[in-house]
Design a protein that fits this description.
Elements: H1 8-14, H2 22-27, E1 32-37, E2 40-46, H3 61-78, E3 82-88, H4 93-103, E4 126-133, H5 142-152, E5 155-157, E6 165-168
Antiparallel strand pairs: 1-2, 3-4, 4-6, 5-6
Helix pairs in contact: 3-5
The protein binds zinc ion.
Zinc ion binds next to strand 4.
């Protein structure tokens, strides 16, 4: 089985300071996540791709399902393997404030929502993603990735200056009964 989502970006994000903690960090959250698409088991993402910089992580089950569907559709469109790379998952309040210090709160003209769906209180429903063609490492255009994410996530935003796409399952995560 080929494993996607293990591009350079996600590694650089999850391989922080070198030092005494190396042995522990190398195995941290190194767990394959398994779900099913149309009754077939699929596993192209690892828990560590969703962790914050401290290694804390939380993933809503529907997000894994949506990501596998996006990956499947992009690969079918390209007629070859496409990696979906998670660049950001769950955030603590401190993570959010650090990010806002860098790129600003929305109500102050920036890009960070004070009620971000990345916050742990929403249950791990949000991811930021990019995508690359595995063989060439060519980046999938933001608009294409956004379009496919709209098929499989409840809410998508794809006009960020750095080219990433935000996707979350805010509707299905709050369905009750
Ligand atoms: Zn986001």
């Amino acid at each position: 089985m080929t494993v996607s989502g293990l591009g350079a970006e996600s590694y650089s994000k999850t391989m922080p300071e070198r030092g005494l903690g190396d042995l522990i960090l190398n195995a941290r959250n190194d767990i394959r996540l398994l779900t099913e698409l149309n009754g077939e088991p699929v596993s192209h993402f690892r828990l560590r791709e969703f962790e914050n910089r401290d290694g804390l992580t939380m993933v809503h089950g529907s997000v894994l399902d949506s990501l596998e569907r996006v990956r499947r559709d992009l690969s079918a469109m390209a007629d070859e393997e496409v990696w979906v790379i998670v660049t950001d998952g769950v955030r603590t309040q401190a993570d959010l404030e650090r990010l806002a210090a860098r790129i600003g709160w929305i109500d102050e003209g920036g890009a960070v929502s004070r009620n971000s769906r990345h916050l742990a209180k929403f249950g791990g429903i949000a991811v930021d993603v990019t995508a690359r063609v595995a063989s060439t490492r060519d980046r999938v255009p933001q608009s294409t990735l956004g379009e496919i994410c709209r098929r499989h996530f409840d809410w998508v935003k794809d006009d960020y200056a750095d080219g990433h796409v935000h996707a979350d399952n805010r509707a299905r995560s709050t369905m009750t009964g």
